[in-house]
Amino acid sequence: MVAPPIAAGAYQELLPAVPDWLNKGDNAWQLTAATLVGLQSMPGLVILYASIVKKKWAVNSAFMALYAFAAVLICWVLLCYRLAFGDKLLPFWGKGAPALGQKFLLRRAAVPASTHYYADGSTVETPMIRPFYPMASLVYFQFTFAAITTILVAGSVLGRMNIKAWMAFVPLWLVFCYTVGAFSLWGGGFLFQWGVIDFSGGYVIHLASGISGFTAAYWVGPRLKSDRERFPPNNVLLMLAGAGLLWMGWSGFNGGAPYAANIDASIAVVNTNICAATSLLVWTSLDVVYFGKPSVIGAVQGMMTGLACITPGAGLVQGWAALVMGIASGTIPWYTMMSLSRKLTILQKIDDTLGVFHTHAVAGTLGGALTGLFAHPSLCSLFLAVPDSKGAFYGSKGGVQFLKQLVGASFIIGWNVVVTSIILLVIRVLMPLRMSEEELRIGDDAAHGEEAYALAGQGQKEKTIHNGGFQMQQYLDGHIP
């Protein structure tokens, strides 16, 4: 059948499917990158969380990630996208509004940095830089970042947070924490204009989630003593599958940051994998030296710290610098997790279930600082709005960039500690932050009426060995069973 003709005057604002301004290659890459980042959360972190925890918390942990992915999407298109990337309301916040309708579908989106900022505060407008693609591509790409950040926060409170409190926490944290960091560093806010570098989320994502998760773990309180002392992964192989989705998805995570299939994207992808592999090998080597055996969980932790560390400078540093950053991210977070955490009272008192503080907050801060040292001036000129940006390694003026990186990290840390605390204290007035004692003792069956494994006894071995079901908390505490 032939479709009837469109009446004259109808759909006046409808553009052709492939208008002249659309760069199909860049649009295709942006949608691909967004899909890769989305797969990191759903099913990546859903699988990782469900399998890395004790059997009785598998369903609850997976559901926390699944719920956050869905809730963030709706909040993002209704309000939060424009809080993070809309017109300026405050130096650190945009004007919230829905990102829907005709503009959502057809508005052009271009690489940012069409405005150059100078030391005296003056600006010069330059023509918009191709590529052009629908605003919808950018909205979805940035949603996947917001979703994974929120899910990472959950990693600190697995195994005891009241699921209803988590359901209330997700939209509030997205509105009042995530969008502030995103606008300040990416959406044209004061840190962006000042020249703080965060290529793809070392601060906006990893530092924010690590600090907020650590803060939430303080207010929610620790797991039961029995869970904290014995917390074996219920499925190590599935844990590796989830970790693999994270690693491979990071090519879209960092490769999509330039908003184009360009030189920066290629450099970012290669550097991401160099740093992750180096960090994993260094972390594993340290495990062998100090504990006598390599740990699968340790390898995953090393992979994560490498990915988090390279993120703020992935497309702005050379390959040798990515290698150095991998060595640092496999060493310093290992030290804070395996040694310093047993010496500092605050790190012992606060029960950060998956060590998100170390793998994301420490690694993200480290990556931001190292970007302030190693950011190459030529690569910075391809990506950044502030001219003459460069790391301290490339000249005396680069030292200013290093200091800017530290100031940017301080703002993210301070904001997330204070606002996350306020959000949780408000929720605590309305409902408990922790599960009931019965739910804490029984786990999924009490909290959800469901269990991860239908067969009795499957996945709940009591006696574990290092190379198989290595106990998570004993690993974090540096003890070998």
TrEMBL record:
<feature type="transmembrane region" description="Helical">
    <location>
        <begin position="138"/>
        <end position="158"/>
    </location>
</feature>
<protein>
    <recommendedName>
        <fullName>Ammonium transporter</fullName>
    </recommendedName>
</protein>
<keyword id="KW-0813">Transport</keyword>
<feature type="transmembrane region" description="Helical">
    <location>
        <begin position="62"/>
        <end position="84"/>
    </location>
</feature>
<dbReference type="GO" id="GO:0005886">
    <property type="term" value="C:plasma membrane"/>
</dbReference>
<dbReference type="InterPro" id="IPR029020">
    <property type="entry name" value="Ammonium/urea_transptr"/>
</dbReference>
<comment type="similarity">
    <text>Belongs to the ammonia transporter channel (TC 1.A.11.2) family.</text>
</comment>
<feature type="transmembrane region" description="Helical">
    <location>
        <begin position="296"/>
        <end position="314"/>
    </location>
</feature>
<keyword id="KW-1133">Transmembrane helix</keyword>
<feature type="transmembrane region" description="Helical">
    <location>
        <begin position="361"/>
        <end position="386"/>
    </location>
</feature>
<feature type="transmembrane region" description="Helical">
    <location>
        <begin position="28"/>
        <end position="50"/>
    </location>
</feature>
<feature type="transmembrane region" description="Helical">
    <location>
        <begin position="406"/>
        <end position="431"/>
    </location>
</feature>
<feature type="transmembrane region" description="Helical">
    <location>
        <begin position="233"/>
        <end position="253"/>
    </location>
</feature>
<keyword id="KW-0812">Transmembrane</keyword>
<dbReference type="InterPro" id="IPR018047">
    <property type="entry name" value="Ammonium_transpt_CS"/>
</dbReference>
<dbReference type="GO" id="GO:0008519">
    <property type="term" value="F:ammonium channel activity"/>
</dbReference>
<keyword id="KW-0924">Ammonia transport</keyword>
<feature type="transmembrane region" description="Helical">
    <location>
        <begin position="203"/>
        <end position="221"/>
    </location>
</feature>
<dbReference type="InterPro" id="IPR001905">
    <property type="entry name" value="Ammonium_transpt"/>
</dbReference>
<feature type="transmembrane region" description="Helical">
    <location>
        <begin position="265"/>
        <end position="284"/>
    </location>
</feature>
<feature type="transmembrane region" description="Helical">
    <location>
        <begin position="170"/>
        <end position="197"/>
    </location>
</feature>
<feature type="transmembrane region" description="Helical">
    <location>
        <begin position="320"/>
        <end position="340"/>
    </location>
</feature>
<feature type="domain" description="Ammonium transporter AmtB-like">
    <location>
        <begin position="28"/>
        <end position="453"/>
    </location>
</feature>
<dbReference type="InterPro" id="IPR024041">
    <property type="entry name" value="NH4_transpt_AmtB-like_dom"/>
</dbReference>
<keyword id="KW-0472">Membrane</keyword>
<dbReference type="Pfam" id="PF00909">
    <property type="entry name" value="Ammonium_transp"/>
</dbReference>
<dbReference type="InterPro" id="IPR002229">
    <property type="entry name" value="RhesusRHD"/>
</dbReference>
